[in-house]
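Query form — protein Sugar phosphate transporter domain-containing protein

QUESTION: What is the three-dimensional structure of this chain?
INPUT:
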Amino acid sequence: MTSHERSSGLNFDMSVLPTFQYDGGKAPIVSTQLGITIIYLLVWVASSNSIILLNKWVIDTAGFSYPILLTCWHQVFATIAMQVIARTTTLLNARHSQPLNVKFLLRTIVPIAAVSSGALICSNTAYLYLSVPFIQMLKALSPVFVLFLTWLWSLKQVTTSDMASILVITAGVMLTSIGELEFSWLGTAIHLTGLACEALRVVMIQALLTNEGHEIGPLLSLYYYAPTCASFNLMFATLTELPRITLADFAKVGWPLLLLNGAIAFLVNISSITLIGRISALLMNLTGIAKNILLIGLSVVIWGTEISRLQVFAYSITLLAITWYSNGVEILTACLTFVRPRGPWGYSKLSSSG
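ANSWER: The structure tokens for Sugar phosphate transporter domain-containing protein are given below.
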């Protein structure tokens, strides 16, 4: 999965929070902007969960045990779609003012695409060995990897609060692993490698792009990274999966399902991009937690996956620790601020001022 910057101030943007308009004292009307944001958010939740469930179904249930090729197909689909967008709209006109030179390609695009490819390959390969609920529980370790790498890269000073949150997260994930009824060392190692690659990608973007003054929008980034990732995936697939795949393997899932899989994977990227700047980091993280819980519930219904009581307890503690680690200041601010009445139907902005 794009990253969102944390809110730095105490005032909340009304484009993020529910706002009400007045029409001669009549009932409030929800703003159009809020409605559009909610639609984008729902599309992101639906598409993100759908692609995870569909990947698990294709790779494991349907027997298409070629996760690298499936990941490659996602990137090929995204590459084609971005080319269509570039030639039929003005959304990617920034590429003309930011041409891709060899130095920029080798120093930024290629390294980041390489670790992105590793993250995608490992995350899909893990479906061969692990259940969807356990994979989601392991993903809770993502902040641990990111914090360690940002500290190693001298991009962040680790505070006592950070360490406390990370220790709780790690302990929680360890307990969920102990409670996993179908634990696989190989699957866990593969998935943790993918998390490490994803964390490295996040840190590299900050170090190689932000800190060096490069300004590339998320849509333009997808335009550059999709074909590069596809190339890396194809290279790995040539060494591992291409020599043994047959037409019968494609027949197991069918081309319509593969096309749907590629389209949903692309929709995940687009929907997450549209959310950047529209919602706060706090709302994004809370929505992500709700999304993960929903995903775990759906996988239990679809595959009958068993979840132990220890996992439920440990994952609940882990989610609380993640929420505090990501948005502790915002949560504390929201709890301490009060909402001023502004009329019979509306409220003023949340503010720390008296």
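ADDITIONAL NOTE: The two ends are 40 Å apart (CA to CA).
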